[in-house]
Structure formats: structure tokens, C-alpha cells
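Before any further analysis, we paired sequence with C-alpha cells, yielding the entry below:
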Amino acid sequence: MNRKRRALLIFLIILIPALFIVLQRRTQEVSMLLVNGVIYTVNDAQPEAEAIAVKDGIIVGVGSTEEIRQSFTSLTVIDLQSRPVYPGFIDSHAHMEGLGALVTNLDLGNSKSVEDIQRLVAERAKILPPGSWLRGRGWDQNKWPKKEFPEHHMLDVVAKDIPVYLRRVDGHAVWVNGVVLAAAGVTQATRSPEGGKIIRDRNGIPTGVFIDNAIDLVESVVPPPSELERTEAMTRAVQGCLKVGLTEVHDMGVDLSGIGIYKKLIGEGKFPFRVYVAIDGIGETWSHYMSTGPETVGHDGRLIVRALKLYADGALGSRGAALIEPYSDDPLNRGLTLTSAEQIRVAASEALERGFQVCTHAIGDRANNIVLNVYGEALKSNEIKARDARFRVEHAQVIDRSDLPRFHSLGVLPMMQPTHCTSDMYWAESRLGPERSKGAYAWRWLLEHGSIVPAGSDFPVESPNPLWGFYAAITRQDHAGWPEGGWHPEQKMTREEALKSFTLWSAFAGFQEKSKGSIEVGKVADLTILSHDIMKIEPRKMLDTSVEMTIVAGQVAYSSGVISHNLQSELTPHSSR
């Protein structure tokens, strides 16, 4: 071998490994880097990290800040400065349009008496355009000194000539004035419909309060909102959700027009959010989707229509929840069943055959038992499709002890809202009695029987803030810290369980656990950044914790302005806060 060939060979022997090392160290250009954080991944294989790399809306790297900076580069770098990051929070049971409508309708959530409501109605009546209806929501007689249903004459004295339509906080009762009673033609002779109740005085005359299916008697004369009003309500709801760290909501009960509004917003690029839709009952919208099947809109699943919402009973606060034994404070009443078992069974079988999930509202122990029985029949009749049906019971607030293991054995998900417990605990025992109360909001018992418990808020019944739900789940206390130790503290969740309930478990409830719910390579970059670490701080401090940034598909959808996400050439050093 001559000298030139020998020199070339030596050169190649040195050059090839060097080139290999250079190529190995070559960084990948990505859309965004988040560094210097405390990242809770909700991934058991890698529970915590410091940094995330995002490309085209997908997480492509999770690790230490040093690892991510060595492997990736980006013009957009967010220096978290030790702030905590979580998978984007998911509310698995909510009502988007109802939340947005609170802005234009009268919000009665803070009223403590009939007099408070009379004052609010009188003030709104003065500025209401001629011919308009006065709508409101949020009253709760359980908060009043005299915990009894109100009457129409209480509204008549402040709004005699204006139609007033006020929905109870849970949505399962309405209170109207005499103008609405007359417009609806409701008289002493009007009979309560199946699954509903007209509240009457001692002489049998309607008082102006209608429970569950009886609401239809007066709702039929209420002018529906326009498409513009509905669009504005949904747009406001999206912004409100992003501000509290939500990246997705399971919208429970949407009609064809509402789905159309979502599609329009997505098509116009005005929807920095995600919605998993449950169709509002058996009717026109359900008939449409029975023929078309489930639907996904947007390349990254901004809108998914894959569920059917049904109602088995009413609500506990208005004594419409169906109980096995009578109410402790109303011995002649066992509540209402709104849909027959046979109707639920038929709908569940149809949904299963066509690839839809069924989400049935059931609050009382009798309603939960009925739904589990019916689900069991439907699932048994189609065992192949039943293997991953993920049927849901919405609320599952009061459960007979014998039914607890059936959720897991049937593969049925108990969809629960932690703040319902802390809102209802003041009066729940008067409704249920001390023994039955032990099975109310029984998160720990369900978890011990092998179930997961996806969480939500049921907003606008409760606040959309998931941090309030997280706090309620781990404390079972109100914001003042009452009661000491928590209401039935044996049912508390751990912080890890509460975090999963608002992330991975809720993603699972929408068949999305492979694409979201945890911070892992290959999943969508839906992230929530908070001002304080809810996995470590004192619980009451969670109530003052703010959302500093909400990221959806790698795009900053909300920012408090505290964290800069402009182009950065240099990162500030890792620091504690």
C-alpha cells in the first residue's frame, strides 16, 4: 500500500467516527421548548421532568433541561423558572353554552335569600328591552333561611308584566312568575307529566316551580336564543375555560345546531380548544348520528361526537333524585325517574351497535341501580362491542353498597364532580340520613373496587375552575376549611388520584388516553402551567393558585402575561420561586 492510500485510510478511520458523533449531536428544530420547570407527566414510567420539546403540536421530547437543549432547538423557548406544568386539565362533565349564557342571563349563584333574588330581578327588569324575557340561573333554596321552594307571587311583586324564567342551580327545576304561567296555560287542572312534578300549594294551585320533566310545560313558551347568541355564549365559555387551565371539556347534551356552531368556529380557525360531545337525548340529533356514526372534526380532534346523553333521574337538591328508600326529610317521596329502563336499554343497545358511548345521568341509588342493570343487559347482548364500550354513569352521587363493585365488573365509568360533594354536604345528610350518606360521593370505595373516577365540574352548576375540584377531592372541605378533617374523610382522593381524575382518567373516559391526558412523546401538547405546585402546597393555597399559561396543541391559547413566550436567544438560569 503506497503512502497516499495509507494516509487516506488513516484519515477515513479518524473522520468517520467524528462525523458519526457530530450527526448524533445534531439538534432537531422544533416549534417550542419549555425548560427549567417542574413537570408532572402523569406517566408512571417517567413521573417528573424539567423540559418538553414540541413540534407541530405534538410532544417530541420529555426530560431534563440539559437533555432537551442538547437534542432540540427552537426560536420559541419558554423559561418556566421552576413553575409547575401538568397535562392540560380535562373537565369530563360540563355544559359549555350554559356557562357562556351566564354573562347575558341573570346569575343568581350568590343569592342567599328570596329577597336577594327579588332585588336582582327588579334591577334587571328596569333595563330590560321591551318585549324581552328575564332569564336567570343559580337559585338554591337550600341556601335560604327558610329552605322551601319559592312561589310565583314573589316574582310578581317585582316583575308583574315581564316574563321571568329562573332555572335552579342544578338545572332540574325552574321558577317562573304569573306571566309565564298564564302564557303556558298552566292551571290547577294541569297534570304533572311522567318524570316531572308541578309544585302546588295546599289548595292544589301551581306555585310557579316545576321539577324535571314538568319544566317542558313552561319551557315550550320561552323564546329560544338566536344562533348569534349561542355562538357568543360558546365563544365566551371557551375563553373562560382556557383562563382556568382547561384544554378540553366533555359537553354533556348538545343538539345539532350546537354541534354546527362548533364546526363553524373550527372551520374559521376560532376554536383554540377541544370538545368531546354527548348528544342531547333521543331525538332529531340522535337520529342524524345514528345514520352517520361518530364524527371527528379537525386533524387533531378539536371536536369529537361519540356519545349519547340520557337522564335516569333528577337532582338531590330538588328531591328529584330516585332513591331506593324515601327521602329522610320527605318520607312520602322517593324521587323521579325521567326515562324508563326500557327506553335506556333500547338506546344503549342502539348506541353500542353504532359505536357510541352512553352517558346516563343518575344521582340517586335507585337510579344508579336501574342504569347498571340496563347497561348490563345491553352489554351482555353484544359482547364483542361491549369489550371497550366505556359506558358512563354521570354523577353517581348516591350508590347502594351492593352496586359499588358492579361499576368495575361491567366496565362502567362513574363520572363524578368533586365540588358537588362540598356544595351538597351542608344538607345532603338531611335528605339521605346518616347511614345512606356514607355511600354519597364515595370516591374511595369506588377506587378500592377497581374503578377509576374521571372528574368534572358540571359547570355552570359549579365553578369551571378545576383547582376547586382538585381541592374538594383531596379535602372534602369548603373554602373556609369546614368541616375540620373533611366530610366523610374516608372517601378522600390522594393528590395523585385527583390529578389523574382531571387528566388521564378523563381522557380515558373520552377514548383519548393514547393521544392526551399525560405528558409523553407522541401525545398532543396540551399543557397547563400554574403559579403554585398543587402537588405540594398546603391545600387552602390551591384556591389562590392561578393559571399562568394554557397551551393547546403547542399553541399558547391563554397567558396571564407573567411568563414570557417571545423569541429568546438566552435562557435565564434555573431558579427557585
